[in-house]
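User: Predict structure, ligand adenosine-5'-diphosphate.
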Amino acid sequence: MLLSVRDLSIRFGPVEPVSGLSFDLDRGQIIGLVGESGSGKSLTAMAVAGLLPLVGGRIAEGRILFDGTDLARLPEAGLRAYRGRRIGVVTQNPMTALDPAQRIGEQVEVVARLHRGLSRQEAHQATIELLTALRIPEAGAICDAYPHQLSGGMKQRIVIAMALAGEPDLLIADEPTTALDVTVQAQIIHLLGQLVRERGLGLMLITHDMGVVAQVCDQVAVLYAGRLAETRDAPGLFAHPRHPYTAALIDCIPREGMAPGSLTGIPGAVPSAASYSTGCRFHDRCPRMLDRCRTEVPPLVARPEGGSLACHNPMGPT
Ligand SMILES: Nc1ncnc2c1ncn2[C@@H]1O[C@H](COP(=O)(O)OP(=O)(O)O)[C@@H](O)[C@H]1O
Ligand code: SF4
Ligand SMILES: [Mg+2]
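Assistant: Predicted complex:
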């Protein structure tokens, strides 16, 4: 297993936005971490990338086993050897990830030089190859360009190139296509899928869009208010959602023939971490709520068909 997260909890002082997460990711596989805004997806990504201290958070409990090493126990100096080199990170907004004053080629090359010890010449060659693999036409000319000369989709490909330039084993992409229009989103998601298969990477794809998960993911972890609702292989999850929150997310995927404006979303909102409710955190939005759901936290239980489920009154298996 490339990545095994076990009982991960994240704290900011007394507030615990993320509790008890466990999931696994193999090489050549994509896991979708999905949930509405405020579910704890970005914090989970930051924990795996070792970036929580930057925002004042910390790993309070649990293990993040990466190729057998527990990243949760490594000091910052040890983590730096992983980030960029073995773990690549793609952020949501390409504008903040790119330096507007530096040519594209230099920005990718510096990563290859730093993490792979390549010479200037070798790094340039590696960058051209990488951009070409990312289906960027005229890679040589693009290397000489500045970020503002490129479209949003092209800029995001460059950010992906920077994340890949250290030849990582694990790629973490946090809402990598949210800022892009729908057609470009689909292209980038498709491209990420191809890269994972070709290079045998593991990809942790973070999104609030269940439609994106359906397109490319092998495994899915559904997060609600900082806890896992359910995890499973993607085909099984979409065919037989058992957690009411999973079913509600699937219902929100726009379907062909749907009238424009008929998208409803799920009524209500994710609570903020400082005011999580008792019992099941979804209870005030759940159509299947029982009395005990208000007071008893549903434990995350392994299921015979693989994956895990946390619900007192799940939907039927068929
Ligand atoms: N820097 C922070 N300090 C305290 N709480 C935070 C911080 N960042 C996020 N949170 C809390 O953690 C919850 C999850 O945040 P986040 O991981 O950004 O969610 P998502 O990426 O799923 O939208 C939010 O509801 C917020 O209340
Ligand atoms: S535990 Fe209860 S409230 Fe929570 S999702 Fe299941 S049925 Fe709904
Ligand atoms: Mg986020």
